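quick one before i forget lol
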Amino acid sequence: MFKVGVFGVGHLGKFHLNNWKEIPGTEIVGFYDPNDDTALEVADKYQLPRFLDADSLIDACDAIDVVAPTNYHFELCEKAIKKGKHVFVEKPLANTMDEARQLVKLTAESGIKCQVGHVERFNPAFLAIKGMPLNPMFIEVHRLAQFNPRGTEVSVILDLMIHDIDIILSIVKSDVKSISASGVAVMTETPDIANVRIEFNNGCVANLTSSRISMKKMRKIRLFQKDSYIGIDFLNKKTEVIKLKEPQDSNVFAFDIETPSGKKTIAMANPLIPEVNAIKEELTAFKNAIQQNTRTTVTEVDGLMAMDVAHQILEKIGNNIISRS
């Protein structure tokens, strides 16, 4: 039986509890949360023991699931790794770059498995293009959310945009060449809305806009590459692909156009979207990586790379941020 302990059982932590309960061969040993009201509610609802100190729960588990606020990530992960326990930690990996680098070092030295909770890697709309050849030269991203005080201990870059940074870094197989960015603080003391341009050494350009003060929600990535366009709607779980090629099956709508180089066929398709629960998928992948001794889907190094770009963005925004005062 795979024994896991959950650290932090607030809004997202409860989703993790619900999904761990549905993963075969898993036992939730208990949880740790310093908030008495939350802990009493969870202990009663889920009939799980509350541990009053972190070390005791870590000792009782094979792996820990850290869903606590970002400023607690390093302390909890460090304790677990030094005890030889596997770690699943929500994004971002840590609160600072120094902490993140130290966790990467500790993980490498210990040989444990670490997975960072960049859940959009498991979004059905993104899984729909798995195996599809991707070589985008232009990427456009919009991630807009309504204001919610939860998560505002970090900027919109580390709260929302880091999801898209991770996705882009997993797609674009090239190093970052340059970054330009601007941001505005509206409801908090850190950027609540930001626009970023990332240029890669291979010529790819990514434009990202993230906001947590929008009237409507949006989570979309558009990929433009030679002879094709791919649109991924993470919020509504839809994907569309438009290609200059012959249609492959009856699910493809196609029409011909005249171009300077002759007649071309535009094929439009909506790939099959798998019916999966993204959180359950990522937790299952973590468990499988441990039991099968394989690489986790989103490693601690992936988490560090996403944080590195995010912090470069924050440095670019720097003193140029426009505050609400």
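fyi The mean pLDDT is 92.
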